[in-house]
Amino acid sequence: MTDAQPFANYQNEIYFAGLGGTLPQYPVAWDDLEARAAEKLDAGAHGYIAGGAGAEDTMRANREAFRRWRIVPRMLRDVSARDLHTEVLGTPMPAPVMCAPIGVQSIAHPDGELATARAAGSLGVPMIASTASSYTMEEIAQANGDGPRWYQLYWPRDPELAASFLERAEKSDYQAVVVTLDTWLLAWRPRDLQNSYLPFLRATGIANYLSDPVFNRGLDGAEDAQKILKFLGVFSDPSVTWESLQFIRDHTSLPIVLKGILHPLDARRALDAGVNGIVVSNHGGRQVDGAIGALDALPAVVEAVAGRIPVLFDSGVRGGADAFKALALGARAVLLGRPYMYGLALGGEDGVRTVLRSFLAELDLTLALSGYTRFADVDQNALREVR
Ligand SMILES: Cc1cc2nc3c(=O)[nH]c(=O)nc-3n(C[C@H](O)[C@H](O)[C@H](O)COP(=O)(O)O)c2cc1C
């Protein structure tokens, strides 16, 4: 029974616990989870996690885009046994779900990425570790154990530092490199500006830099302030172009995934550049306010890629139905973002695991109740666009 419905049984566990008087420790509904986390987090951390760029119009667009696509369930198709397993670029996963790269997780909980790594690892859900993590990529890998993991690169201005990050990631058994393309500069983020809150200035989220031999050259005996200044200078290189991608190829043998593709012409350029995958994403509305909702961008990108490389998706995914829709529109897997940060804020490792299990259960149930047993059979025919 457990195998036949890989995740849905979690709801039985919750109902049975209720017979013994135990209620769920964390809010089950997405909005309530966010609201409870907002109460717990301090204003700066909450603004940083929940906020977006500008008027947060793109954050809203991300959510609205999901409402315009509706699932049209099919009936009488024997959905008693489902299989959500998949593999993306050689990385096996129990469902087409990964943890999006999120930096500075210690602002949500002192265990930060270590908690996420343990929770994701315990479920076999791949974690994408950010360059801007509060713990080093080696510490995260250790906490993640045998769990599948990818490394997200913020491409630094210093090529030797970039090469060092890539080498460290490969040594720590990360299985792919995700290069984020939309954050060469930090966008205008009113909530963070209002709180004058940027965690990096407090040396939070720069563990990979502080632990790096290339970064540390010439910094013997330097004060924190000097290191932070160096970090600010080296964090990114807005001058890189499509041609520069060869540098990454030359410095890693891992599959390369470009994150932040929205335009179909960029998807074609990615194919021409010979990368191995892309993530359709607008960084959760945190970068270009006014940018297209990520789900609105997905179909054209999928069409441009024509099945030659996997297209992943994030930005605005909040539950099983959202994931189902993105997968039906051609994504090979979805990246869950802010929701697991709220789980982290409320309960560390346990909170992240609970959010992931709930998300997977809802996804399994949505698949079954819509009339399918595996995502390979789900395509745009499962949806209608409603305007
Ligand atoms: C607090 C926070 C920090 C983030 N840090 C990173 C990061 O370090 N690297 C990266 O590629 N994306 C980062 N992202 C973007 C996520 O990977 C993902 O694209 C985004 O969260 C998706 O939007 P959603 O959470 O609203 O679904 C961050 C997002 C948030 C909310």
Any overview of this molecule?
The chain has 387 residues and is an alpha/beta fold. Helix content is 42%, strand content 11%. It contains 15 helices and 12 strands. An 8-stranded parallel β-sheet has the order 4-11-10-9-8-7-6-5. Helix 13 (294-305) links the parallel strand 9 (277-280) and strand 10. Helix 5 (112-123) packs parallel to helix 15 (338-369). The protein is globular and about 70 Å long. The two termini are 40 Å apart. 50% of the residues are buried. The model has no long low-confidence stretch (mean pLDDT 97). The structure holds flavin mononucleotide. Flavin mononucleotide binds next to helix 3.
Question: Quick recap of the structure?
Answer:
With 387 residues, the chain is an alpha/beta fold. It has 15 helices and 12 strands.
Task: Please describe the structure with a list of short key phrases separated by commas or semicolons.
387 residues; alpha/beta; 8-stranded parallel sheet; two-stranded antiparallel ribbon; 15 helices; 11% strand; globular; binds flavin mononucleotide
Helix/strand layout:
Elements: H1 10-19, H2 30-40, H3 43-50, H4 57-67, E1 69-71, E2 86-88, E3 91-93, E4 97-99, H5 112-123, E5 127-129, H6 137-144, E6 149-153, H7 159-171, E7 177-180, H8 190-194, H9 207-210, H10 224-234, H11 245-251, E8 256-261, H12 264-272, E9 277-280, H13 294-305, E10 311-313, H14 320-328, E11 333-336, H15 338-369, E12 383-385
Parallel strand pairs: 4-11, 5-6, 6-7, 7-8, 8-9, 9-10, 10-11
Antiparallel strand pairs: 1-12, 2-3
Helix pairs in contact: 2-15, 5-6, 5-15, 12-13, 14-15
The structure holds flavin mononucleotide.
The site of flavin mononucleotide has 21 residues, from helix 3.
